[in-house]
Amino acid sequence: MIKITELSRLYQINKTFIEYGLIDLVPKAQIPKSYWILRICLFWLRNQHKEMGLPERLRLSLQSLGPIYIKLGQMLSTRRDLLAPIYADQLAHLQDNVPAFSGDLAIKQIEKSFQRPINEIFDNFNEVALASASIAQVHTATLKEDGREVVIKVTRPGIAKTIAADIQLMKWMASLMQRFLKDAKRLRPVEVIREYEKTIIDELDLMREGANAIQLRRNFLNSKMLYVPEIYSDYCTKDALVMERIYGIPVSDIEALKAQNTNLKLLAERGVEAFFTQVFRDSFFHADMHPGNVFVSYEHPEDPLWIGIDCGIVGTLTNEDKRYLAENFLAFFNRDYRQVAQLHIDSGWVPADTPAEEFEFAIRAVCEPIFEKPLSEISFAHVLINLFNTARRFNMQVQPQLVLLQKTLLYIEGLGRQLYPQLDLWDTAKPFLENWMREQVSPQTLFNKLKVKAPFWLEKLPDIPELVYHNLAQTKQIQQQQQLLMQRFNDQQQKNSKNQVITSLAVTLSIITALFYLQSDDSFNLYLTIPAVVSWVIAWRFSNKS
């Protein structure tokens, strides 16, 4: 049942929607009647920002609603194929220009986290935030112990309560969807919200973010694709994180990248390669790659290097998920839609009784038009809409474990559009995936797997004879039990058959007795009653024994 705090939050969302006049986003002919009923019920609320343009009102409304809605705006800002440039430009301010909280509050939060005065740890602490985002903001300083330049990331005070209230409201709305909407079972909204809750709660813990960054940095150490700043783990707590300060050009600043003659084609290709490397080589990928978290190094513009920060959200995939994804991607690249359909059926993403031929034809109709076109001419949003319609026809279920991957792919596409619109995303990714698939079945990979498992097998080797003996003994015992059960079953069948014969005889005699009784021949009726009663008694005793 929805709580008072959740009702209050629902009211706040509707209040924000009305006060910023966001109904103007919907064509008047498509405004549902339920809105006008709601509008009458909330008659005291008015549009208070008529003097502002609609794009600015949209940004400010998302900003006022808090971190979950800010993240929605961040993702939309990268989708210039979905939004007009004036909207995308406004929402881009949500990437790192969210209003900061005061420097005094930041100092109190840092001192509370480290249990020490701030001047004992840092010199040159700048109370003006370098950047501010939905959950935390960063300040610059130098470490007192060695003078290294650092940034300190500190969470917003009270942010956990705001997020908890929003998540509870989303859970309530998801449960209503699952209960009352016909198509909700396929979309699995409750599971999706649970997955999102886990993700955003993890993002609140800066110690977890630090651990993620350390792992990602180790995976790309000395790489030409991606650089991750060093984390100073001695200065990390749940609410404060200290890391190396980096200098780079925001990836969204295309003019600055062009001014230093950055190789944008190579930069875009390396972004795609870095993403697929994280997913398929490491099974550990940065899942929040909006432009506010991605920079380009000033050094070597002809050989550009990505810089990734804010590793609060990462995704992982199982080996089974990776294999199915890689095989699906390659089947798409090769236009083998029958293989795509069969993979979806084999993986359980669609019901096992789905007609593969019909599914193949539906996928072909959606995907065939996207090939042999540059990225700038491909509307992946349109493709996704068509795929969802196809999914609805074939009862495909949403896979919660892939939600982060899907979101990150949207970010990658958005960045690719901004950097190098002519980039062929498929052509860039295909060789990488083909090499990865070959490596999975190569002798070297097999040898490496055997080498990893060899110590375990050697440890268990002396136990194998005993395990074989116990397995054989258990198999023999199971066979004996099966024979005993079969014998009991046969005996029971025979008893049931005899009981049915006696019961049938008793019923027959009872019917004959009743018929003769109607003829009023008492003496003959008595002779028939006795065997009928005896038959019923025998049948009753026989059934009790069985």
From TrEMBL:
Pathways per UniProt: Cofactor biosynthesis; ubiquinone biosynthesis [regulation]
Main location: membrane
Catalytic residues as annotated in Swiss-Prot or TrEMBL: D288 (proton acceptor)
EC number: 2.7.-.-
Mode of membrane association: Multi-pass membrane protein
Binding residue positions for ATP: L130, A131, S132, A133, S134, I135, A136, Q137, V138, K153
Name recorded for this polypeptide: Probable protein kinase UbiB
Organism: Psychromonas arctica
Gene that produces this protein: ubiB
